[in-house]
Design goal:
extended; 2 helices; mainly alpha
Length: about 80
């Protein structure tokens, strides 16, 4: 808005990491970045979906890292469906 202030559409900000408060915003930024990358490199994108489920099995032989709950607290579920 102000003159002389940096704009996010400037080339120097083209491939920077972006931190967002919401996963939905991050997902959209990633989607747009993928589309731009494919277009600039003459490639086509293949969209696929997977349904992942967390295991309820707490195997005592597993490592602490394997047993840790990996649910993202910002999502209500770890199952994502196409929009």
């Amino acid at each position: 808005r102000g003159s002389g202030k940096p704009k996010l559409n400037q080339p120097r900000f083209r491939n920077v990491s972006v931190i967002t408060a919401r996963n939905s915003h991050r997902d959209k930024i990633n989607e747009l970045g993928c589309q731009r990358f494919a277009q600039e490199n003459g490639k086509s994108l293949t969209t696929f979906y997977s349904v992942d489920r967390l295991s309820a099995d707490n195997d005592e032989e597993g490592t602490k890292k394997q047993r840790r709950n990996t649910v993202n607290p910002r999502r209500s579920t770890n199952i994502q469906y196409p929009q």
